[in-house]
Every structure is written in C-alpha cells, then in structure tokens.
Design goal:
By secondary structure, the protein is α/β, with parallel strands linked by helices. The protein contains nine helices and nine strands. A five-stranded mixed β-sheet has the order 3-2-1-4-8, sandwiched between helices. Helix 1 packs parallel to helix 2 and helix 5 crosses helix 8 (251-296).
Length: 326
C-alpha cells in the first residue's frame, strides 16, 4: 500500500460539504483554487487535498498556507480515481464535491449549488457552468460513452454535427450550456454529490487510473435511480480549459484514455461491448495512420507528426498490449 501523510487538519465537523481536490504539480493553480473556495463559500466547508507526489512543492504549500485543510501527500502518483477515493474515505461532509485544482470558484458557486441540490432531492450528481473566459462557456456534460458515440468521436464524425445533430450527440453539441438539463455524465472537474448517494453507490472505481472514472460513477448513480444534471445556476472558471494541440498530447495519456474506456466498456457493456470498443479504436488508429502517414510524406509539421505518433502508440497497445512510457 502506498504510504501517505496523516491528514493535518484537526477541526471538527460536521460540514455542509467536503471539497476534494486531487493535485499533481499545479502548486500555483492549487493555491488560487483553495483561496477562491475560502473567499467565496459561506457553507461550512472541509478542504481535502490529495497530492499525487508532486515535485513542485504543492504539498508543502498546502501545509504552510492552508493549515486547516486535510492534506494527504502520496509518495507516488496513485492516479485520479484512487486519489479521490483517499479523499472520500476521510470526508466528513453532508455532500462531497470533486473539484479540479485548475478552477476558480465564482460568486458563491458552492453555496448556490448546495442550495440548488437541496431543492432537487432526485438528483444524485450535479455540475455547474464552467467558463473558459468572460464570454466562453466550456462544453461540459456528456452522453454515455456507448459504442455509437465512441464510433462518432473516434472517426472524427462530430465535425458533421452541422449537417445533422446526430453527429454531435456524444458531446451534446446542439446545446449551449445556458440551460438546465439531464446529462449522462457530469464533468469530473466539478461533481457535487450528496452523502447518501455516495453511501449507496460507493466511491470511484480505482481500476481507472485517469479518464472515464466520472462516466462510470455517473452510470452507477443513474442505475441506482438518481438523475445526473447540469445547471447554469452557478459558474466556475477553468483556467486550463482550452484544448491543447495534438502535438502536445503525450502518447502515454492518449493510450490511457483508450485503456480506461475499454475498462468502462467491459464493465458496463460486457465482453461484446469491450470487443466492439476495441475494434473501433483499432479501425480509427489504422485509418489515421494511413491518412496522416501519407500526409507526412508531403509535409512535416508538428501536428501531422504527432498524429502519426499517437496512431502508432494506439495500435501498439491495442494489438500488442504495449503501453508507451511517455
């Protein structure tokens, strides 16, 4: 078992909400996130930071500047789901909030969401509106990642959503996130869950190192009879909300995303679902390798090189079980 630092906080509950933040090398962003929670929240709030062996002094910063926070400092990176579960295991709040460290709480967002949840007892998980800038709403809340949605995303067919909304269904691209609606998956950057729901469905599944864990949790919440909802009732800022170029994506994380989805498919859709998902990924990687490999012969820009690299990494994992080291 991976060793952890004993939680540092000694203040007693009960708390209205336990905010769990999993951190890895985002010291400055984490500081701003924690301070925004303190500044913008009137509800009694337990802060829990689980640091996954950061090398940037994150854990020391939390201990020095936020002494009332519960700090769990792992000696190695346990992954996102497992680290959140460490926080859930010690959380004492009547609600739990999973929150990304690269977010900023705006205008009493946590208080507003707690009040909203109190008015909707049939909701098991709720997310709020996420802003990338003053005028830009990030696309959060997604459809269940079944085979058809996976096929649309993997083959890049969402580019056709202007022709027919069917092609935008995985990400609900015909919805502007300015209205409230039920969703299959609440984005993991802000997931507010009542204690009784957590007690019923259990914590995250730490079979997922990263990716798909929120889809799995929401699936189990919905199967237990609760709704998963997005509401623009409150807003947060996601500072790292902009999408990265393909050339910046590490092969290891690209393959991990596919690995996690295969775990999800096997767990919730059986062996046939798993084989179908794997076949879709193989088909997508092979097509991308042919197309971008040919394009690579006539141009050598970083994006094209990266797409070839990622396609090769994907095929090596899917066909040979070899995961990239970086």
């Amino acid at each position: 078992m991976k060793s952890v630092q004993t939680p540092s906080a000694t203040n007693d509950g009960p708390f209205d909400v336990s905010v769990i933040i999993v951190n890895w090398n985002t010291c400055d962003l984490l500081r701003d996130c924690l301070q925004s929670i303190i500044d913008q929240t009137e509800a009694s709030c337990e802060l829990i930071v689980v640091d996954n062996a950061s090398a940037d002094g994150s854990a020391d910063m939390v201990a020095a500047e936020f002494p009332n926070a519960v700090l769990i400092a792992n000696t190695e990176n346990n992954g996102f789901a497992a680290a959140n579960n460490q926080g859930l295991a010690v959380a004492r709040g009547a609600h739990v909030l999973l929150l990304n460290p690269d977010t900023i709480i705006l205008d009493g967002a946590i208080d507003k969401m707690l009040a909203w949840l109190a008015r909707h007892p049939d909701v098991g998980c709720v997310g709020c509106q996420v802003m990338e800038g003053p005028e830009v709403i990030q696309r959060t809340g997604f459809a269940e990642p079944g085979l058809m949605n996976l096929l649309i995303v993997s083959l890049g067919l969402m580019r056709l959503d202007g022709i027919h909304p069917f092609f935008g269904r995985p990400w609900y691209t015909d919805w502007d996130r300015k209205s409230e609606r039920d969703v299959d998956v609440v984005s993991g950057m802000f997931m507010l869950v009542p204690r009784h729901v957590l007690d019923k469905v259990g914590p995250l599944d730490d079979a997922y190192f990263v990716y798909s864990e929120e889809a799995d949790w929401c699936y189990r919440i919905r199967q237990a009879g609760w709704r998963c909802v997005f509401t623009p009732e409150a807003q947060i800022i996601h500072l790292d909300g902009g999408s990265k170029s393909t050339s910046q994506i590490r092969s290891r994380m690209y393959v991990q995303m596919q690995k996690s989805h295969l775990i999800y498919s096997r767990k919730h859709h059986g062996r046939l679902g798993y084989l179908g998902a794997k076949l879709i990924y193989i088909l997508s990687a092979a097509l991308r390798l042919v197309v971008f490999g040919a394009l690579r012969l006539v141009r050598s820009d970083a994006e094209t090189k990266a797409k070839v690299r990622l396609s090769l990494a994907s095929l090596q994992y899917l066909l040979l079980g070899k995961e990239p080291m970086s």
